[in-house]
Amino acid sequence: MDTLRSMSKSMKIEGNPFGSSHQRNQIFLRFVAFFLLIGLAYRFIITDSTVSPVPDVRTSPGSPPADPSGLTAVAQAPASADSPGNLTNASHNASTKCDIFTGNWVADPTGPVYTNVSCRHIQEHQNCLKNGRPDANYLLWRWKPRDCDLPRFDPELFLDRMSNKWLAFVGDSISRNHVQSLICILSQVEEVEEMYHDKEYRSKIWRFPSHNFTLSVIWSPFLLKAETFENTEGVSFSDIQLHLDELDHQWTDQYINFDYVVISGGKWFLKTSIFHENNTITGCHYCQGKNNLTELGYQYSYRKALRLVLNFVAQPNRKAQVLFRTTTPDHFENGEWNSGGFCNRTMPFNESQGEMKSEDESMRSIELEEFRKIQKGSNSDIGLLDTTSMSLLRPDGHPGPYRYPNPFAGLKNKDEHNQNQNQIQVQNDCLHWCLPGPIDSWNDLMVEVMLNREVYR
C-alpha cells in the first residue's frame, strides 16, 4: 500500500502525457515529419489540377521596347476579357479602337477625388461651393465613352511617369481652368510649389519637387502676337490688334523646354479685332465698317492662327508631344455674358439634347480641318484632345452667378417671377467650370491620348 501511495504521489507531481524530455523530442519530430508529408502531397495534387492565380509578368523576347515617353502605364486599368493585355480599357478590341470622345455622362456617387477644401489652388471665380452654390449634384457624374471604359486618372502613377518632365498649357483662361483642375488632382498625392507668376497672375509655373516635374500655364489667348486693351472684367476699351502672321513669343520662346504641350484657342477670336499681315492692316472682325476696313470674320483669323501654330509645332526638330484641345462651348441662355445670359441647369444633357451654337460649330469645324491637314502632311507627334462634345453635355457645370460669393445677397427675393428677373441683374459665368467639376474628366482623356497617341493622332 505504501508503495502504491508513493507511485501515485510521484505521478501527480511529475505526471506528463509525453513522458520524459527525450520522449517529447521524438514525438515532436514525428509530428513535424507527418505534416511535411501531408503538405507535399497537397502541393502535388493542387499543382496538377489548377492554374496559378498570379499572372506571368516576365517580358518575352518578342515584346516591344518600353515607351520612351515614360507614360506607358499611366491610368492603365486591368485589361478586360475582350481586350489584349497591352491595351487600356479604352480600346474595344485588338482591331477596333474606341472613340473616347463620344459618349454620355453617367452617375458616379463616389464624386471627385478632391474637394474645394482639400485643394487650395482653386481660383475664386471657380470655387462654386465656397461662393454659395446650393446644389452639389453636378459633382456626381463621370464621362463614359459609348463603347468602352475610360481609365480613371491615377495621380500617383502620373507623377511617377512625369518625373524630370515639363508639361505646359498654352491658351486662355479655359487653359488656366484646366491646369487648376490638374493641380487639384495631383496635389492629393504631392503638394506643388509655385515658382513664378506674371504681374496679372495669368501665367504661372509650378514644380512638384519629389518628382522634379514642372507644370506651367502660359497666357496666350490668340496664340498669336496681339495687343489687347481690356479691364479686369473683360470689357474692351480699344480694338484688339491681331497679327495673323506672327506667333506669340510668350510661348514660342519657351517651347524648347517642354516635353508635353496642350494648346488651345477659342472664344477670344470672337472679339472685335483689327487684322495685321505683312505689317499692313488687311481687315477685321466685327469692326462695323470702321475706317472702311474689310470684314473678314473670325473664321478667317482663327484658321490663319491654327495653321501657323500647327505648322510651328509640327517641325521635325520639335521634341515636345503636343495635344491640341478643341473649343469649349458655352451654355449662356436668354442672352450672353454681358446681356443677362444665365445658366441655371442642375443636370447634364443626354447625348441627344446638346446643341452647339453656330460660332462653336464653325470653330470646331476649322479645328478638325486644320488638324487633319497637319496629320497628313507631317510625321509630327500631335494628338487631338477633343473635349467639345463631352463639355457640351454639361450645362450644369458652370459657376453661373456663383463666380462671386453670395451673388444674390443684395437682392430682394419676392415671388417666383421676381426671382427669375433677379438672374438678369447678376452676371453669370457659363463658360468656365466649377472646381471640382466636369473639367476634371478632361484629364482622364488627356492621359489616355498621351498613352495611345498613335490611335488619337
C-alpha Rg (nearest Å): 32 Å
- Report the principal-axis shape: globular
Compressed to H and E, one letter per element, the order equals HHEEHEHEEEEEHEEEHEHEHHHH
If classified by CATH, what would the architecture be?
3-Layer(aba) Sandwich
Task: Tell me the number of structural domains.
Answer: 1
Per CATH, the superfamily is SGNH hydrolase
Membrane topology: Single-pass membrane protein
InterPro entries: TBL, TBL_C, TBL_N
Transmembrane segments: 27-45
Family: Belongs to the PC-esterase family. TBL subfamily.
Please characterize this protein's 3D structure.
- The protein is an alpha/beta fold and 457 residues long.
- The chain has one domain: SGNH hydrolase (Rossmann fold).
- The protein is 29% helix and 15% strand.
- The chain has a seven-stranded mixed β-sheet with strand order 4-5-6-3-9-12-13. A four-stranded mixed β-sheet has the order 7-8-10-11, with helices on one face. It has a two-stranded antiparallel sheet with strand order 1-2.
- One of its GO terms (cellular component) is membrane.
- It is a single-pass membrane protein.
Write the layout of secondary structure elements.
Blueprint: H1 2-14, H2 21-49, E1 103-107, E2 141-145, H3 155-161, E3 166-171, H4 173-186, E4 193-197, E5 204-208, E6 213-219, E7 224-227, E8 240-247, H5 249-252, E9 260-264, E10 273-277, E11 280-285, H6 298-313, E12 321-325, H7 358-377, E13 382-385, H8 388-392, H9 416-425, H10 440-451, H11 453-456
Parallel strand pairs: 3-6, 3-9, 8-10, 9-12, 12-13
Antiparallel strand pairs: 1-2, 4-5, 5-6, 7-8, 10-11
Helix pairs in contact: 6-7
